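ugh finaly. both done.
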Amino acid sequence: MRPDYSPARALARAARRGPGRLSLVDAATGERWTVSQSFDAVARLAGAFRRRGLGAGTRIALIGANSAWHFLCHAAASWLHAVTVPLSPRLPSSALASMCVRVGVTWAFVDESASLHARALADAGIRTFPWDDLRSWTRHDDPIAGEPARCGAELAAILFTSGSTGMPRPVELTHEVMWWGSANFREGFDYAPASSVVGVCAPVSHIGGFNGTSLDVWTHGGTLVTLGFPGSFDARGVLDAIERYRISMMFAVPAIVRALVEEFDRGGGDLSSWTRPLIGGDALTGDVADMMRRVGVSPIHVWGMTETSGAGTVATPDCGAPTGSLGAPFPYVDLRVMANDEREADAGEIGEIWVRGPGVVSSEEWLHTGDLATRDDDGWLHLVGRAHRMINTAGELVAPPSVERALRTLEAVSDALVVGLPDERWGQVVAALIVASPAGRDEASSLTVERLSEALDGVLAPWEKVRRVMMVEQLPTTTTGKPDPVEATRLFAISEQRM
């Protein structure tokens, strides 16, 4: 018999075991579904998809703030062996359309926050529908006949991750790979899906929000609470949801943790149910860990990538790993730290993390992650940085070349060099050395952060925008004549010291 990693079939079994359990909560709208109602909605969506011509291999983009519809659509798509492509509504319209075309998306669903992208998607030949159509189909369309299709090596989802060239890179995840990612989380975090309540505040366009514990808990009879509030991140809304729904497990990047603790200090709250706070996407520094412990929350540090379904390493509070350590590999992950000469690095020696396993897209082949780490004398892993120039700001990855290209389109800018600078709140912020063009020299003093943000609105995503700027006569270069990001970082540091 074929292996079965189908989310729809898992949800069907959960509906038979506990039909009346609370299954889905959309915190932004207040909508709720029991397990049986979730499965009925999935069956009706699958029927609506099939009657409208969707089938095996159809790529469906889901563009909106975190919502129940991301998960209902994914399970419905799996019934037909269709493929979901969750995308951030905060990206520029042109970027979204290009990404959709690149991976063959033919259908897209958008919420109100993403409705401004509809024209660009339509111009790209993509059939675009509002979230409200999904609601209507789950109420008025007939359920699909028969049992959900078994799922194994079929493509399940495509998630984009930032590439070092500045072009978002699609990562194809099969149902099998995603299932093994969840299996790693079950053992690594020691949770029972049917009795867990998971909150999703990380964007579902990222692996930390989309797969991980989210799909596992929901499809196996637990409760999933989506936290997709309109506009900017709502720390008070997340704290209230943790208390109201007794959220027991939730993934967050350190910048989100800071915002939650600061809001907790202002207005209080009850975090006692949040027994599995999964922190990743950036280094867990000692001050962030201390902040969490001060409010009664013990962090679980997670390192992973889209290519590993989010599961790479874990450091639980009681494992003995020092604060900030990546901990040890998940149960079904093989990991090496490899020196430049492709031997395993000695203790204290920097090397690149290589991983393999059933939850890794490369499976039995070693995946070269591009992340640099060391092992201490006790064997614990410590992240050093990225092998490339990627900037990690609040868990969002920014490729400097893409920001540099955008800056060079401005008439007043001749050249630019972008680097990431350390920042207590965001981990890193985007900073730019700028050389003014001859025509723009008179305007050089007006090239402030605010003016750049205004000029590039709609071109750069919010997390890509320049937060610090310095005007220079020429860019620093290496001995080979290439722009020197190390020297650029040093110039910013000198400037900070003089202020």
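ok and the 2nd:
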Amino acid sequence: MTQTLPAASAEAATPMPTAAPPGGGDLLNLMLDGQPRTRADLIELTGLARSTVAGRIEGLLSVGLLQPSGQSRSTGGRPPTRFAFNPRAKLVLAADFGVTHGRAALTDLTATVLAEEVSDLDIAAGPEATLGWLVDVADRLLAQVGRRRSDLAGVGIGLPGPVEHQTGRPVKPPIMPGWDDFDVAAWVTERMGVPVLVDNDVNLMALGEHSVVYPQVEHLVFVKISTGIGAGIISGRRLHRGAQGSAGDLGHVQSPRGGDALCSCGNRGCLEAIASARTIAQELDPDHLGGADASRLVLERLSHGDRDAVAAIRRAGRDIGEVLASCVSLMNPSVIVLGGALGGGAPSLLAGVREAIYARSLPLATGELIVVPAQTGEHAGVIGAATMAVQQYLAPQSVDAMLANPPAHAVVL
């Protein structure tokens, strides 16, 4: 008896979708390591046809993202041309705003700073005054390096308060009056004519420190200790922002020693209420108003060997370490970086943090953990802001869109 097979359904008869071949953006992604490659190298790496690779290369050359980089050794006949990523094809404007300062920098597409300007600013002056300074600085910096606004790929901005990353709007920032729900990205885009990304300053410090110092580290926590306390989290080599962008709000975690201490957020017992530079300054000098110069006062006392200052900063380190010990148990990072005015400039604070973490965390979590001061120093924020903008500009889908609609004039340097 012959068995009749059931008719194939329409779904089963439909060919399975095949993955799209790597586009120009994917090919460029291979070149971001800076290593020059020939057409033959790229054919071998991608598995694409010779004609397809040639077309991808021509497109990337036309927009300036690739450039010829000498010739490879000949195996007979004409030596093949090598190509390399061109980091000067476009520039990025990066800004890092603190409570009392603004730092703006122009970088290339590797987030390398080419020119910068720093100024005393009061973030409480409001968004239009602060961002207006950035727009003015942009033209001065571009003039310094002999480029134009049309050479900008984008703008990255770090702000000292909670930011909803998807919209670029600050959300009830406690030390930024007048900024709540202000559309920072739209305001700057309207004046600069390029895409603008905005994030919390600590997130960008984490991104900057990771990209420059620890690019191979999978899990890192960057802690900024200054007028306030915050953390930026790198997980799986990616910045972790959380659902609304508030991940890492370390300063408003309740501290074991927090008790009834009133925090600027309105709650009591927060870590920031007992361990920030503002609190320590008021403890050392009851007449101090706890303003933005709090870090400077504490560091001056430490530099003169003030015993009260040393004891206070060590105690603050232990308080911060106790909260970080919970983070170590929860996240198991391999690197914790301390930055900000106090994090990078107070060895006794670092000692207190280490003491508490290693005492309260399990050996498995701390066996290979290092707790270190930041190495990018005052540039962490602008490097991170530039990295954020560069990552968006060079994302494969962004590059593919650019190649589909190339600009009228490409800059190739």
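summary for the 2nd one i guess: The longest helix spans residues 307-331.
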